[in-house]
Amino acid sequence: MPKVLQFGATGQVGQALVAAAGRAVTLTVLSRAEVDLTDAAAIRAAIRAANCDLVWNAAAFTLVDRAEAEPDAAFAVNAAAPAAMAAACAERDLPFVHLSTDSVFNGQTGRPYVETDTAEPISVYGRSKLAGEQGALAHPRTTVLRVSWVFSPYGRNYVSFMLNLGRTREVLQVVADQFGSYDFARAAIARDPLTRARLEPTTQGAFVEAAARPPRSPLDSSKLAATFGFTPQPWKPAVERVADQLVRNGI
Question: What are phi and psi of 69, to 5 degrees?
Fold first, then answer.
C-alpha cells in the first residue's frame, strides 16, 4: 500500500483528501502545529524523517482578501513552503504533488484555461500561488494540480456560506457577473427545504473586497483525464451532493 505524507490537516482540502484516501493509502498528515510552514528547515526535516513514497501539499494561505494586507504571510506559505517541500523531495527522489489555483489567471479568456495559457494573476493571493508553482516545478518529479471553486462538506466555503445565508435572509444578493457564483448559489439553496431566501442577481462592484477576482476562470480538465484517466464530476451534481450532506448535518 502506498505511503503518503500530507501537509495540511484542518483545511477543507486537507480534510477531503483524508476522507478520500480511505484505505487506499497509508496516510500521515502533518498540521501547521506540527510543522511550521514558514520554516524551510522544519519542512525539510519532516520530509527527511517520513517513511513515505509520495508527498502532497494541501496547505495554503487561502484568505484571499487578507493576503492583500499580509503579502509576506501569503508568500511564505503559498510560495516558499512548496518550494522547500519540492526541494526536500528531490533530495530523496520522492514525487511531490502541489495544489494550486485558477487565481493564477486574470479571467479574461472567455474559455476554460489550459495548462499552457499564460498566467497573469490579479491579486496577491494569485501571485503567491503562481510563485509557489514556479518554485516547486524548479525541482524534478513535481506535479502541480490547479483547482477551481473548491467546496466540500468540511470547513467554510461558498456552498456552506450560501446555505447559511439562505436560512437567515429573505433576499440574497449574489454576484452574477463572476462565472459560477450565481449558478452555484442557486443549485445549493435549492437543496435546502429550510431556505428562506429569494436570489437577486447583482455585480461584483456591489461588494467591497480588497482583492480582485478573475471574472471567469474555469479550468479545462482534458489533460487530467488523458494523463490519469480521471474526469471530475460535473459541477452541478457535485454541488447538490455536498449541499445535501451539509443540510443533513445541519450545515
Answer: -90, -20
Q: State the number of CA atoms in the 13 A half-sphere of 201 facing the CB.
A: 10
**Count of C-beta atoms within a 10 Å radius of residue 120:** 14
Q: What is the pLDDT of residue 115?
A: 96
Dihedral angle at the C-alpha atoms of 117, 118, 124, 129, nearest 10 degrees? 60
Report residues of the chain scoring pLDDT below 70. Answer: none
What is the separation of C-alpha 219 from the centre of its chain, rounded to a whole number of angstroms?
13
For residue 106, what are the CA distances in angstroms to 29, 43, 119, 171?
Answer: 33, 31, 7, 30
Q: Which helix (H) or strand (E) holds 6?
A: strand 3-7
pLDDT for residue 180: 78
Angle among Cα 35, 52, 134 to the nearest 5 degrees reads: 65
Residue 130 CA to residue 79 CA, distance in Å, equals: 8
* pLDDT value, residue 25: 92
Kindly report, residue by residue over 105-153, the tens digit of the pLDDT: 999 998 999 999 999 999 999 999 999 999 999 999 999 999 998 999 9
Place of cell 494561505: 61
* Domains by residue range for the chain, with CATH: 3-147 (3.40.50.720), 157-250 (3.90.25.10)
Q: What angle do CA 42, 16, 81 make, to 5 degrees?
A: 25
* Residue 178, pLDDT score: 82
DSSP 143: E
Catalytic residue among 125, 154, 158, 182: 125
Establish whether 125 is a catalytic residue: yes
Q: What is the DSSP letter of 205?
A: G
